[in-house]
Structures are given as structure tokens and as C-alpha cells.
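Lab notes, practical 5.
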Amino acid sequence: MKLVFHGAAKEVGRSCIELQTQGDRYLLDAGIKFKEGGFSYPERIINLPDIDGLFISHAHLDHTGALPLFEHYKIICPIYCTKLTYAITKVLLKDSYKIARIRNLHPAYTKTDLRRIHKDVRLIKYDYEYKHRKIRFTFTNAGHVPGSSMILIRAEGKKILYTGDTKLRTTELVRGARTDYHDINVLIIESTYGARELPSREEVRKKFLDKIEEVTRRGGSVLIPVFSLGRAQDVLIMLAHRKLNTPIYFDGMCKKITQRILTVPDPYVNNQALLNEMFNKRVIHIGSEKHRAHALSQQGIYVTTSGMMQGGPVLSYLKEMWHDPKHAILLTGYQCKRTNGRHLEEEGYVYLDGWRTYVKCEVEKYDFSGHADKEDLKEMIRRINPKQLIIQHGDPEAVEELKHWAEKEKKYVVYAPELGEEIII
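Output from the prediction step:
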């Protein structure tokens, strides 16, 4: 049995791991990585039509964005994922293709390839064992975003557990990951925050809501850039817990994603009734540029995509708010290098219409995350107690710190694979 790493090896993005067993080949995820000038795809995959099965852990594009490309190169195997993951993936892939065309980026596949994915998808229920060719597999709750799964594969008398992206603790939106596994031979774990401890979510939530009240009391508006899947819904649920007299506006791709979360049943989604009340009764949905301009003419709390302020409606709000110190921009998630969000967080400026613009309004960052931090990753590893541990989906320093800790424990055989590396199980 062999594992080959086609992406997410000492990097965050383009998750794609190949499992070779008993003459068959399977892929765990099919992601892309965003870079300047386009995307990078999984590398060194030989003969895609020969793949026997593809397992998708969740809908984020760093785990699903290569699906249309794989269809373009004639992958013909079943694609397994949960019902909610597929419903959200369809929205994200379509939007990604549209943005690529607008920016004159070559997405490496056609619109027809997007449609072809549907014929290969097989919808999976949680906690139920399925059989495909010579393996058995089970999807279990990963705690990351709605629809997210860990994937347990039984092959050649061994158990391999792939976490995808995962979070141990329950959040406003998703119940925490399941960890009651036994006799795991190989654990393939993410390490996005493998070198960092996150603050208490309850403490961060209180500071976040207190800041919104403070800004609105002084007559300012609040801009909250959000990721369309996960953070947008977290923020709506948090806002439901405070009596705010300022209107809340909801804008961008997060509207479609929230609708999918509310209409496709998933047993591990939290606070659906509260989310439904906020989405359908308490927020104001922005429907056009004219409506957006009207909303900006008065005080408001604006929850909108994109979360790293690279595109989408958030730029319209930025243009009207950046110059006034009474307003505030509240960042709520990880900001990648060379994005507006990272520039704003570290240097105090953004690019608007190509111009570097130093922002005069208040800027605060709040560490909400759908990922386990380093202490929770360690706790997960201890609970699952695998014979072999593979650390991936993290920047090199995060991977190495978690690897160093695991080796000191002297309980596991530990790997930190490079891109293209093969590991014999």
C-alpha cells in the first residue's frame, strides 16, 4: 500500500493525496491553490482515467477546485462526498469559473467540464460504511464547515483516517470533530495552525460584539469581510446574540451558500433555527448596486464577501468607508500573503482601483477559525493514537513544529512529506 502526495505537502492548498492499494488507485480531495496570476493544481498525477475513486472531504476550493480539470482530463470514477458538500461545491465552482473569466485567467477547463461533474458524484451519509471495489470507507464529522468530513478507509486489513480540514471544538455553526476511533494504522492530519495556539473563542466573540456596539454607538458603520462558507454564517449567529439597533446588511456569495446550508439537511450543523431567523427575517439582503449604494448612505453593519478583500462587494464598501476614522473594518479570518486583507492587517493599506490606499478607519482582527490549533491537533493525535502519523496541509514551519512534538512523544512513526513524495504503508 502506498500514499503519494500531489498537493498540500508543506503548503496550504491544492489538497490531493493518492492511495494505491491492491492494484487500485484512489484520490483524497482535488484542490487548487490560489497564486498571483491564477491557480496551481495538483502535480504529477499519472493517467487520471485510471483512478478508481475520488473522495471529497469538504467544499472549499483548496479541496475541490481541481474537479473540473480532472473531468477535462477524463476522470471516469465515482466522486464521493456528503450531500451538503456537493450542494455548496456546485456554487463555489461556478463562481470560481466566472471570476477566472472576468479576470482573464485561464481556468484550464471549460463550462462543459463543470456540468460533467454531476454524473460522477455519489452522495454519502455520515457514519455509514460503504464498499467500493476492494476497500470499505466511512465519512464522519470533521467539525470544520457544514458538510465537512473525515474519511476512514479500510484496505488490506489496515485503517487509514484522513482528517481533511478539522476542528475539535464545537463552534456556533458546526459540532466538533469525532475522535472516538480505534486501531488506526495511519492518521493523515492537517496542520494549518500546527505552530499556533488560538485564543478562547468565547473571549474573541465577546470582544468582537463589544467592538461592533462601540463603533455603532459613536455613529460609525462596521464592515465585516467574511468567507462565504463558514465565517459568514458564524457571524450571523453571533450577531443574533446582541440587541443591535443598527441595520445588518448581507451581501455577496454568502447569500447563496447560507441558503444551501438552510435547505440541505446535515446532522452536524448547529443553530439552524437561529441562522434561519437571522437570514430570513433580521438581515437585509443587498440585491443590486443601487441597493448597495442606498445602504451605504446610512449607518449599517455590512457582512459581505470576499473574506480577504480581493474582490466582490466588499470593495464597494471599502471605497466609501476607508477615509473616515469613525468607521471600522473587522477582519474575521486568515489573510493570505499578498491579499488586500494581509496588506491591511500588517501595513495598513489596501489596493483600490489599482491605487495603494492607506486606510484611516479603525481596523481590528479577530481569530475565529474553522481549524484546530496546535494544542487541539495534539489532543486529536493523542486520542486517535495512530501507529503512523502523516502531517500535511500546513506551511513548513507549522508542519515541522507539529512533527517535532510528535517525534518527542515517541509513540508514532512520523512523516512530513514533500510534494511528490511516496510513503509505503
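Observations recorded by the TA: The mean pLDDT is 94. The chain has two domains: 2-196+370-424, 201-365.
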